[in-house]
Amino acid sequence: MATNVPAVSAAIRILECLAQGWPEMVAPSTLVNELKLNRSTCYNILGVLEQAGWVTGRANGPGWTLGPRLLVLTGVTDNIKNEIAQKEIEALSAELGFVVFVVDKERGGRYRVVAVAEQTSGVRVTVSVGDSFPFSAPAIMQSFLAWTAKEEVERQVQEYKLIPFTEKSVTEIDQLHEAFARVRRRGYSESIQQFNMAQGGVAAPIFDSAGRVRQVVCSLAFSSELDSSNVCSVGEAIRRCAETITRRSGGTPPLDYEASREMI
Question: Are 101 and 89 in contact (CB under 8 A)?
Fold first, then answer.
């Protein structure tokens, strides 16, 4: 007969509780009260599970949910991934006051909008699910390709071409690689009047479990609302949103992701 190990039993109960609430965060008080655990014991177990990647917390608020390594083991459906992304971009759109959306990459190099969150009041740049953007849409392209091998980037550029949307568009391959380096350092891309003289945009990558860019989160606004004065703060917000979606959907950033951001 197996011997009951209290800490292991408590860890199982914690994981079961988080699984029932997933993809929502479960408050620490819920774990302590409903599972009738000692607060210190509960937090110690959560700490060990977090180190293993089996649970994860949220930086900007209390609560726990299943972690990326456990989600990789169990698998996450595309519908659930999209549900996670939708909730995160809705919160960010409410914070920024701009449209925030998620794009997939399609065959032919174009990007298709799969989720949108936007504010209903005031005059705003709008985007709809099903809309598509061309391969060289600056902010989206840079976030998709920044962690792609140089040879593959140049192959795609040769196949799909770089379109000069405005006089500020980057169309030289060397300048493009410099832009990719900036994206890797900061964790987000920017496009101020590069796609449209009346618009500014920022984007950040969502990674899959293998550390590859799976989708991109993007926000657009009029250039009078999003410009060089606030692009950094908006970009950081987009990056945090993308990182949360990555973590909550079982994704893992590439090995050099955190190190490159620490060098800023």
Answer: yes
